[in-house]
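Fill in residues.
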C-alpha cells in the first residue's frame, strides 16, 4: 500500500521554482517541493522538448507521491531581437561615435553590425533609443534608411556576438509568438501544462492569439516586461487569465525608479480583477552562487508579499544555481514570516477591493466576513472551473481556502492562487453532500479537528460554471 505524504503550507503566498540543469532529478525536485515550491516553471528559452518532457513526467510522479496538485508553467521564449556577429567576436563601442545597424549579414566591426530585424528598421524614427546587451549600451537613431539605421552611441562599452536588442519607446510590428513559440506551445498543451507564460506581450491582440491556440486547455499568463504593455494594461489584463511582473526585461526598458511603481500598479490591477499575479526575476539572484541572500533581496521578496502578489518566482536560482533547495527554503521562510506580521494583515485588510456587483462576489465577501466573525478554521469552495476559488482568494480571508474540484486540471491551476489549498475530489450533486465532503477533507488535509467550524461556498446547480450562489456554515463532526 502506497504511503500518502500529507502536505499543507503554512503560508498564503505561493512559490514558483524554475527547473533546469541544477534541478532536474527526482531527488532534487522532491526536495524543492517539500521546501515550498507550489508550481514548477519550464523555461523554453533553454532545453529540448525531450528535456521538458522528462521534467513534466517527474512532476507528475511527484504529484502522485504526495497526492497533491502541482502546477506547471511553460514559459515560451517570445521574439528575441539580437544583433549579428562581429569579425573578431567582440568590439568596443565608444560614446559619442557613430554606429550603423544594417541588414547586411557580413560580420560587423567597430563601425557597423548586422541587425537581422527589418521590423525594427520599419518602426524606428529619428530619436528612437536602442538598448544593447540588457541595456548596458545605448544608441540613438539619427537617420533612418530602408536598409540601415544610422545611430550615435550615447553609452558605450564592449559588445559581442548575438547580444540582445531592446526598443523601449516603440511598438514593434511583431507577433508575441514566433514559429519556435508555436511549436513549444503545441508541445506544452499536448503534455497538459496548466499555464502558458506569454513573453513580451505588447497588446491585447497578443493575448487573444495565444488564447485562441490554447482553446481553454491552459491559462494564459501574460508576462508584462515592456513599457507598451503598461500603456495597454487594462486591455491586456482583461484577456489574461493571470499576469507576471517580469522585472528583468521591464528593468531594461524602464528607468530603474519606475520598476517598483510598475510592479505595484500591476499587482493592484490584478487584485482588483481577482486574477493571479506573479512577481518574478532577480528576487534572490545572489543565491545563484551564495548559500544565503542579501538583506536587500529578502526585503524585495517581502515587498512583493506586502504588495499582495499571489506568487513569487525563482528563476536561475533554482534552474542553474548552486543552492536551489536553499533558495526555495529561504523564500518560504521570508514569506511565512511576513504573513505573521500584524502589519501585513493590516495592509491586506486596507487594500481589499470592493466586491463587484455579482452573486459570486457577494457570496465570496460574505464567506470572508462570516469566517472572520465565527473564527472558522477554513473556507471550503467547490469549483469546476476554479472561478469560485478565485473569487474567494480575491477577498484575502484570514482563514485558509480549501478548494475542492472534480478536475485535476482545475486543481493544478489553483496551485498558483493566493491562500488556496487545492484538492481533487469526486463531483458532488447537492449542498448537503458538499458540506459532508468538506468536513471530511478539512480533517484529512489538516485544516480542522472535530468541533471546529468551517464555511462552505458553492454554485447550485452543481456542474454549471460561474454559478457561485450558496453559503453554508458547518461544524466538523
Amino acid at each position: 500500500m502506497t504511503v500518502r505524504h500529507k502536505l499543507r503550507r503554512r503560508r498564503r503566498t505561493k512559490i514558483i521554482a524554475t527547473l533546469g540543469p541544477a534541478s532536474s532529478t527526482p531527488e532534487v525536485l522532491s526536495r524543492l517541493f517539500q521546501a515550498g515550491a507550489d508550481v514548477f516553471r519550464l523555461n523554453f528559452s533553454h532545453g529540448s522538448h525531450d528535456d521538458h518532457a522528462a521534467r513534466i513526467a517527474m512532476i507528475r510522479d511527484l504529484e502522485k507521491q504526495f497526492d497533491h496538485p502541482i502546477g506547471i508553467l511553460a514559459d515560451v521564449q517570445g521574439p528575441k531581437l539580437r544583433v549579428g556577429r562581429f569579425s573578431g567576436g567582440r568590439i568596443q563601442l565608444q560614446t559619442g561615435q557613430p554606429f550603423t545597424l544594417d541588414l547586411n549579414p557580413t560580420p560587423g566591426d567597430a563601425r557597423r553590425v548586422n541587425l537581422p530585424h527589418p521590423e525594427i528598421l520599419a518602426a524606428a524614427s529619428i530619436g528612437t533609443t536602442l538598448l544593447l546587451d540588457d541595456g548596458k549600451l545605448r544608441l540613438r537613431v539619427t537617420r533612418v534608411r530602408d536598409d540601415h539605421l544610422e545611430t550615435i552611441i550615447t553609452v558605450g562599452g564592449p559588445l559581442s556576438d548575438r547580444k540582445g536588442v531592446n526598443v523601449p519607446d516603440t511598438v514593434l510590428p511583431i507577433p508575441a509568438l514566433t514559429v519556435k513559440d508555436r511549436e513549444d506551445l503545441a508541445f506544452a498543451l499536448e503534455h497538459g501544462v496548466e499555464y502558458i507564460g506569454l513573453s513580451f506581450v505588447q497588446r491585447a491582440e497578443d493575448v487573444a492569439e495565444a488564447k485562441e491556440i490554447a482553446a481553454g486547455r491552459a491559462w494564459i499568463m501574460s508576462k508584462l516586461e515592456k513599457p507598451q504593455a503598461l500603456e495597454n494594461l487594462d486591455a491586456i489584463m482583461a484577456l489574461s487569465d493571470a499576469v507576471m511582473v517580469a522585472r528583468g526585461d521591464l528593468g531594461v526598458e524602464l528607468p530603474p525608479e519606475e520598476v517598483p511603481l510598475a510592479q505595484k500598479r500591476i499587482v493592484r490591477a490584478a487584485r482588483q480583477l481577482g486574477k493571479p499575479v506573479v512577481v518574478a526575476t532577480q528576487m534572490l539572484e545572489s543565491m545563484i552562487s551564495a548559500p544565503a541572500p542579501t538583506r536587500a533581496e529578502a526585503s524585495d521578496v517581502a515587498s512583493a508579499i506586502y504588495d499582495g502578489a499571489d506568487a513569487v518566482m525563482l528563476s536561475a536560482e533554482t534552474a542553474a544555481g548552486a543552492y536551489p533547495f536553499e533558495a526555495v527554503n529561504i523564500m518560504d521562510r521570508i514569506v511565512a514570516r511576513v504573513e505573521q506580521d500584524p502589519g501585513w494583515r493590516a495592509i491586506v485588510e486596507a487594500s481589499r477591493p470592493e466586491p463587484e456587483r455579482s452573486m459570486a462576489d457577494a457570496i465570496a465577501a460574505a464567506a470572508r466576513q462570516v469566517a472572520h466573525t465565527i473564527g472558522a478554521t477554513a473556507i471550503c469552495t467547490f469549483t469546476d472551473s476554479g472561478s469560485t476559488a478565485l473569487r474567494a482568494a480575491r477577498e484575502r480571508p484570514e482563514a485558509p481556502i480549501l478548494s475542492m474540484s472534480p478536475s485535476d486540471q482545475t486543481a493544478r491551476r489553483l496551485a498558483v492562487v493566493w491562500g488556496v489549498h487545492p484538492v481533487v475530489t469526486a463531483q458532488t450533486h447537492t449542498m448537503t453532500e458538499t458540506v459532508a465532503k468538506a468536513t471530511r477533507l478539512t480533517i484529512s488535509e489538516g485544516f480542522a479537528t472535530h468541533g471546529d467550524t468551517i464555511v462552505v461556498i458553492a454554485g447550485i446547480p452543481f456542474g454549471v460554471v460561474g454559478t457561485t450562489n450558496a453559503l453554508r456554515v458547518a461544524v466538523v463532526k
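The chain is about 35% helix and 20% strand.
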